[in-house]
Each structure stands twice: as C-alpha cells, then as structure tokens.
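Quick illustration for those who missed Monday's session on complexes.
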Amino acid sequence: MSGHHVPPVPPSTQQVLETFRAWYRERGHVLLPPASLLRPGTDPVLFTTSGMHPLTDDLARGSHPAGRRLMSVQRCLRTTDVDEVGDDTHLTAFQMLGCWSLGDYPHPTSLRWGYELLTDGFGVPPGLLHATVFGGDGDVPADDDAARLWEGLGVPVERTVEDNWWSNGPVGLCGPDSELFVWTDPATPPSSTPTRDARWVEVANHVSMRFRRGTEGRLAPLGVPCVDVGTGLERLVAVLQGGASVYDTDVLRPWVTHGSSVWGLGPGDVRVVSDHLRASVLLVGDGLAPGHTRQGYVLKRLLRRALTRLWLHDPALRLVDLPDALVGGTGDLFELTVDPRQVRTVLAGQQRSFERVVADGARRVGRLRGAGRLGDDVRRELHETYGLPPEVVGRLLGDEPDGAA
Ligand code: SER
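Prediction with serine bound:
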C-alpha cells in the first residue's frame, strides 16, 4: 500500500478517530463505549470479531436504548486469519469503526456519508475510489439502489455475488453489502477492479442488514431493516498515511522498531511478534489469563507463537523486556486500562513454561539421539505429546534454519 493520494499532512491515528467520531456525531449518531474482547459463554464465538458483534441482538430486534443512530470504535480479535498475519493488511487485534442505522436512514444514505467522509473528511481524491455491490442471486435481487448511488457520484462499480453478501455465519443476521475501495499504487493510475487487483484496498463495508437466515437455510426479512457499517481502523490509517502496510502506521511502528532494533528480529518475525504481543496485551487488559481451554488457550497459543519466533532468533530474548510504554500506549489507544505489571506477570509465566518445555525437549532429543531414533515419528511425538513447536523440534534436531524471516 502506498499513495499519491496521501493528504498533504497525513493524519495520525488519533486524528482519524476524532474525524470519524465528529463526522457521525454531526449526523446524529450516539457513541457507544467499546465492549470487551471476551464474549460471554452464551456466545458460540469466543472473541468480539466486529463492531456489530456486541450489537447482534439489538440489530435483530431493531432497537437499542441509545437510539436509532449509533457508532462505536470497537476492539476486535480474529484468529481465523492468523496465518495471514504478517502480510500488509491482517492483524489479530484491530479496531473497527462502526456505525448503524436501526430502521432510520436507508442504505444509500449510508453509502453517501461514507463516500463524503473519505473524500471531504479525509481528503482522498474521488478518482481513487471503486465500489462493489451485490449483483443478485436466486433469493435476493441485485442491489440497484446502491449501484445507482455510486454511479451518481461517479464511482465505478463492480458487481459480485458472494463477495457482496455479508453474514455472521450459516444462520443469523445477513444481507447484501457494498464495499468501498481505495487505489493504493502511487506508480500507476487506477485500473482493473477490486476483485481482480489487490492494489484496491477495502476501507469500508456497508451492509444492508435486512435478513435473518434460519437453521433450515431460508431467509426471512427483519422487521426493522438496519444498516451496519464497518471500517478497519489500522487499514484505513495505512491508506491515509501512505505507508506500505498496517505495520507502517504511527501505532504499529513503535512495536516494529522495538522488535527490530532491540530484539533484532527480521521483517517477517517482527510483524508476527508485534501482532501477537499486541493482541495478548489487550486480552490481558480485558482480564484474561492463559489457560488450557477456550479463550485462555488462544492467549497461550498467541504467546507460544511469539516465544517461538523469539527463541528461534535468539534463545536469550525475553518477552518481559517488552517496554511498558508499548503496553500503556496500546491500552490508551484501545480505551482499555492495562496494568503493565499484570502483563509482565503473564509474559514471565509463559516464558518460564516455554523454557521448561524446550529444556525438556532438548533432554529428550539427547536421549533419542543416543538411541539412534530421530525419524519423523519422533518429530511428531515431540510436537504432539511434549508440546514442542515443530520449528523448535527442527532446531533441536539440528535442521538448518530456512532463513525466510
Ligand atoms: N459487519 C460488517 C463487517 O464486519 C460491517 O460492520 O465487516
């Protein structure tokens, strides 16, 4: 990502947040406080994955105590993309700028406000925008209202089916959506379309949330049609700051600087370690401790992955050397009180148990080597039975590092 469209003075993340909040406040939206990342046990999903997630019941009912125009800046956590973490656009923990109409204004109004926020509010040249809209299927007709709105604004439109249908899962709230993309290659003028060229980066998704899919698969219209808009903050900031990726933004850069200059990590490792630690800090801030099941297990896995990267780079590196300023700054940004001592306690505990597992593994490898048994079955056993990450097993067995990171 990068851009000739960058406003003369790129906005900081805080300025982007302020612009967003002021924009929708002026249009009558009430700001809701962010909900915890941890979903209650009644939710089959472990973590808050989008801005609308904590509002699912309100949207289904079509009413909320705070009114019919709502907005939030919601911390979110997604582990489904964990293998893509390290690329330019995916983060495990991120913030979503959300706004909603609960049976108030219609979908095209939301699209127009979203367009004006980007162009007037953030200064993105209109010629760098592209929209996608739902092209229709056997159940729901094409979203001609959205297409007309975009055409009226001079924004090119691509029609898709699956890519422009939003749902929370196989059952529940869903509807056609329209996404807005920004062209991010400064070297060439915009070309092609969002589904064909990754230089189009999605910055907003406006869902016309007006159906519920039942367990038998059938769509039923909602009594109160809603509009649900979500924008990934870090991705938007990357576009507006003209950096090559979310890691080049003002909020991720201090993490990257620490990981590369203090820990000496390579560019691939530094991204993964920064991402996982940042997500872990937020989970600890929301009161989670590492554990063997459910949410606690996810936190443990994130820290294990970070520890593995650090250990492979240099076994002397310690997670507790994470500066308090990164912990506190992340808490402030996410509007969450995070106690750096609590974070250090969790990191130190995980570091100790990782070191125990590795030391145990090294002893076992020594014994197995003495017995002449170091085949694939042993690698599997060390991983599956003794909990050693495969890369650590490889290193203990003397495999050459792949050097990729
Ligand atoms: N529900 C949509 C999303 O998560 C828009 O908020 O992208």
